Predict the structure.
Amino acid sequence: MEQKDTYTLQELFDYLPITLVELSKKSDINEVTLARIRDGKRTRRDTVNKLMIALSQVYGRNLSIANVIGINIMINKRLEKKAISA
């Protein structure tokens, strides 16, 4: 995969040089959860962070939510309420 400023989550999964099983082990994320993330389902930020670390290792480049688009991150309503009331 070519080096660029931003990537889509879909292309990272499409060009994945390892199996989903191997990515699951590397990221410590269940295969079903990985498939759900790939398919656009909401996921927690800590899970996304683990995935970005694993994908960074696989692709040998720095990947994060800042340069990967198409990730559906679950919003923590409880933390938002605390921030508003503070």
